[in-house]
Design goal:
Mean pLDDT: 95
CATH superfamily: NADP-dependent oxidoreductase domain
Helix content: 25-40%
Largest sheet: 8 strands, parallel, barrel
Number of domains: 1
Order of helices and strands: EEEHEHEHEHHEHEHEEEHHEHH
Distance between the termini: 31 Å
CATH topology: TIM Barrel
Strand content: 15-25%
Structural class: alpha/beta
CATH class: Alpha Beta
CATH architecture: Alpha-Beta Barrel
Low-confidence stretches: none
Oligomer: single chain
Length: 319
């Protein structure tokens, strides 16, 4: 699959690229750079996206990413581009108050208003309810709760399409089965070393829901970067998963393939997944990601990798 190929995003009518530009790291400057250097790094990437100069037409953010700086930077780039082009797809997320933990319907309306102001958009193309595991399925669905607010936002024309984004696959499947949502974001549950989102994705496909698979690198460990050693999905890694990671690294080395390329292409090659969200915060990182997406990987390597995956062990029950 070429990154330039657009696919229908479930029943939304939107066309999205297989790679989605993730902006969770579009926040404060890195330790080795000044604030101005950080803003220039992000600004150059954002401007390239909104100019249509990247191999993706799809960008993902959130009310809370980068302590709200992600939306601020995106909004500034939209203004520099004189608006969000019709060929580009932007999605953001409703978030709880990170200080108080407020996840009420009223808080969702404030989250919407904050995002509209930062982005400079009265109507958001795609809006997700973000991390409802913080209060659980029942509280999320309760009268006056966040799901009711999100549905009302669509009915009143504040957002065009609505989705659900979170972690635990069992909880996400309950939301999918309500038939309320048009789109799904799952993270760290479908990688070369974990497949616990399989049933969730099948349930979404059956309902023609748009599917985003996020965090294909398992929080970084599947890039081979030593900084992420000993973790998976932002938690201490389970020994069985560590064994699988070590095995995948060995197989990739023997095949002359980078593990990061295998991790990314594992998601890109699954026909159920419409787009894979990858966190990218510089033009150089975008170039590396594109190279990984196009790296030649022998077909037999996939079967060898599959044989290493621990069965029955998931991110939600012990990793």
């Amino acid at each position: 699959m070429s990154l330039g190929d657009l696919v229908e995003f479930g029943s939304t009518g939107l066309l999205v690229s297989p790679l989605c530009l993730g902006t969770s790291s579009w926040g404060p400057a890195r330790m080795a750079e000044t604030r101005e250097e950080g803003e220039q790094r992000i600004g150059a990437l954002a401007d390239a996206f909104f100019a249509g100069a990247l191999p993706t037409n799809y960008i993902d953010t959130s009310n809370e990413y980068g302590k709200a700086l992600s939306e601020v930077q995106i909004g500034a780039a939209i203004r520099r581009a004189n608006g969000l082009g019709s060929a580009l797809v932007l999605q953001t997320k409703l978030d709880r108050d990170v200080t108080t933990g407020d996840f009420s319907g009223d808080r969702m309306w404030r989250s919407l208003e904050e995002s509209q102001k930062r982005l400079g958009l009265d109507r958001i193309p795609m809006m997700f309810l973000h991390d409802p595991e913080n209060i659980g399925f029942e509280a999320s669905m309760a009268r006056g709760g966040p799901v009711e607010a999100l549905v009302a936002m669509k009915e009143r024309g504040h957002v065009e399409h609505i989705g659900i984004s979170g972690g635990p696959v069992g909880m996400l499947q309950k939301f999918v089965e309500t038939d309320i949502f048009e789109a799904l974001v799952s993270h760290n549950r479908f990688t070369i070393v974990e497949r616990s989102a399989n049933d969730l994705f099948d349930a979404a496909v059956a309902r023609n829901i748009g599917i985003n698979n996020a965090a294909p690198y398992g929080g970084g460990v599947l890039t081979g970067d030593a900084r992420f050693a000993g973790t998976y999905g932002y938690r201490p890694i389970h020994p069985a998963v560590q064994a699988a990671v070590d095995g995948v690294a060995r197989l990739c080395a023997e095949a002359g393939v980078s593990m990061a390329a295998a991790a990314l292409q594992f998601s890109l090659r699954d026909p159920r997944i419409h787009s894979t969200i990858v966190g990218i915060s510089s033009l150089a990182a975008m170039d590396r990601t594109v190279a990984e997406a196009h790296e030649d990987i022998p077909e037999q390597l996939w079967n060898e990798i599959d044989a290493l995956v621990p069965r029955g062990l998931t991110h939600d029950n012990g990793e």
